[in-house]
Each structure stands twice: as C-alpha cells, then as structure tokens.
Amino acid sequence: MKVKKGNWFLILGIITFIILTEILSCINTGYTYSDSYVFLPEMWIDDNHYLQELNLETGIVTKRRIGINYKHRYLERNVNIGNGKIALICSAVFPEKHFADRNGYVYFYDTNLRELFTLNFFATVADDIVIKQSINGTFMVIDYYKGTDEKIRNYQLEPFRLISEQKTNRWGELMEVDDRYVYYVDFDEIIVIRSINGLKEIKRVKPIGTCRKITNKKALILISNKNYQIIDLWTGDSKDFIFEDRGYVDLSEDGQWLMYRGADKYSFTGKVIVINLSNDQKKEVQIDSEILKESKEMTIMRFGKAFFIREKEMTVLDMQSGKITHKKFIFQDDITGQKSPLAIKAQIDKLINQYEISLIKAINTNKFSLVANTLTPGSPLYQSQKQLVANLYRKRIQEDLNGYHVKKIRMVAPGSCKVYVYERVGIKYPNQKEFVEKEYYWAYTVVGKGDQLTLSDIEKWEDPEEF
User: What digits encode the pLDDT tens for the residues 117-160?
Assistant: First the structure.
C-alpha cells in the first residue's frame, strides 16, 4: 500500500514532535524519575518498622515494611542520599555484660529492590554517625571511634562502591559533598574545601556571618536575623539579600533558588518570597500560615518547585510562575507482592548465621544433618558440603568460627540472589596445638521456595575490594 507524500510529512512531523518533547523534557528538568521520591520522617507504627515513601509527582505514599527486629534494633533516623536510595541509621542492643549498650550501624536501602548493602561503622551509638548526601551521586559517612578519631568514608552511588576510607581528627561540621570535593565549616566559622581523595585542602573562604547551608558550590550565609548572603565558593561572587522581617531562609538543592518564609515574633506570617539566583527575578506569594507551620520540618525545593509537606497532604509552589496547588496524599501498602529489601536481608542474615554455626559443628562432629537444612536438597552446595564434612572429619581437622560478615546482597533473578560473605575461620590440623586463622571471601547463591530460603551454590568472591 502506498502512502501519499503529504501523509508522509504529517507522520514525520508527529514522530519528530514526540522525540523532541521527550528530549526537551530531559533537558529542562535534568532529573530522573527516582528524584521524585522522598522518605517521610515517621518510621515506625505499632512497634513494627516501616518506611513511608512519598512520590512528589503523584502524592502516593507507599508504606514499606523493612523487617527490623525492634526488640534488638532501633531505627533512629534516615538520610535520603538521592536517586531512590536511603541510608537507615540504626542501633543494635548488646547483651547486658557487653562493654557498650548500643552500637551504631547503617542499612543501605534501594527502592529498586536490586541491591542492598550493610555499612558497618564504629560509632558507639547511632547518633554519632553523620551522613551527607551529594547531588552528584557521591555521599560521605563519618563515624566516631573511641571519642576522638573519625573514620571517613566516601561512597559513589552509581555504581555503588567505596571510593576512599581514612581516619582523621574531628575538623568541624560537614556541610556538603560532591563528586570531587568536601565542604565543611571549621570551629572558627571558616569554610574549608578539600579534595574527596586524601582530603587535601584546596581552598578556604571566610564568610562575614554563619554558614547555614552549602549546595551546588554555593553557600548560604546568615549575617543577621534579616540579612543573608549567597557566596559562589569558586568564583568568589556574592549577593546580599535583606528581608523586612526575620524568618526562615533556604537554598534549593540545585543552588538556583532562594526561598524566604516570613515569621514575626510568635508565628509565620504566611509571606513567601522566592528569588531566582540566576536572574534575580523575585516572586512573592501568600500561603496559609498554618501550612507553613505544619511543614516547617519537611520543606523540599526540587526541580523548580517548593514542596511544603504535612502529615496527610502537601502544598506545591511553582517558583517560576508563583502558582500554588494542593495535593492530598494517597496512602497504600506496598502492593508489589515482593518483600522489601530489609525484610529479605533479615531472613538471609538468619540463614547465613545458622549455616556458619551449623557447618562448624557438622565438621567437628561428622554430623552433616546439623547443616543440611540450610542447604537446597540435591544442589551443588549440598553435595560438596556433604563431602567436605566427611573428608575433614576423616583427616581429624577441627575448625572454629572466629567471625563472618555479610558484605553485600545482589538480586540476580526472581527468587534468587548472591550473598557475598567475608569469613574468618580458625583451623587446627592433627599435628598442631593451636588454631590458625584463615580468611575467606565467598559468594553464596540463595534460593527461595515459598517462605523458606536455602543455600544452593558457592563460588569464590573474586574482587572483595569492590566493597
């Protein structure tokens, strides 16, 4: 069938329009779909831990169960590190005779349900862990060790990997991290910029007031209750802003917008001023003072909009046009039918713990049945460990479990994942008096059938330095 020449031009025009629309939408926003997600502060309901994930575009709040045993672990806060990922700051409760009551650690949660990592820290309590996100796919962790030193770790989000790790003395308040530099304010209120690798000092900036925030290489400085300054930390350019009343001033995540929320001595006035820092255009709008009050702790400035988030709804201000819209939240449980990453991890942790302890007992007593129920019947690992138990017992080799750590979990297929484990095992041969410790890096395959998880295979973890 022939298509008329005029129709070809019409079809070509439609296709070109669709393609250009998609391209321009990407150019204008510069954000990915996952940037639409934020995590609400409320994190536990009726002693069961949850995450509440808000989609800023749709107003849908998804409640996700995260599988932390509240009797032994406390979920203290979360840090949104961007791209649909969150660091969950937790505390573990130790037995009564332990040298400390709690120990801080972090779960790394990915909303895509593909990868989950445990970040182990040395903080005595979770409040001692500092995590700062970056808009450029990097974040930094500081955990305090023995009260005087800090261990500083830099991570890259995509792909998720550890960039550097080092110890240093405390050097002030960490303000911002990007893909190349670390920005912090020392105890003399001087902004210090260091390279992300080695923390070599690059530059110092002395502001005339107190540094409140740094983002996208710009610093928000409080000079007085009504007087603020924005400094470009790399060019040295600065702009002063004076407001009629004292209030709350914030800098957007991309460093392009300044927002002022007016407040008198007692409460919010309802006045909101947004300033485009690239051209100094100013918009003044009036928002219900109760909305500003209720959203005081949860206001986000992202992709040209300000989101004033309350318990059940949010008010959205388009900072370019000044248009205000209201959106009620739609609450729902996770309806994917999949377990959340932390629920899966809790189950895997239990399986690996049972396997590690049971295998040692099986080797030392020649009772394979002790470990058999952690293995997939008839699988390669089932057969190999059955032979291992018999061979080591016949050679009178004894083993002692000195420790292990689940370093990474990677989903590889529906109902199957790879679990990367670091193990320390003491081994004693018949002609030896003492156990000699050896280290192993293994990648186990975990498969699920119904609600039961078992180990089906094992291979060497070829590159343990990747995490």
Answer: 777 777 777 777 888 877 667 788 887 765 556 778 888 877 77
Residues whose CB is less than 8 angstroms from the CB of residue 59 and which lie 6 or more positions away in sequence, other chains included: 313, 314, 327, 328, 329, 330
**179-202 pLDDT, tens digit each:** 888 898 988 899 999 888 778 899
What CATH number does residue 432 fall under? 3.10.450.50
Kindly report, residue by residue over 375-388, the tens digit of the pLDDT.
999 999 999 999 99
Q: What is the pTM of this model?
A: 0.70
Range of the domain at 441: 341-466
pLDDT, position 316: 97
Task: Establish if 50 belongs to a structural domain.
Answer: no
Number of domains in the chain: 2
> pLDDT, tens digit, for every residue of 230-256?
999 999 999 999 998 888 999 998 899
Residue 387, in any domain of the structure: yes
Residue 365: inside a domain: yes
Residue 119's pLDDT is: 73
Q: Is residue 432 part of a domain?
A: yes
| pLDDT > 80? residue 35 | no
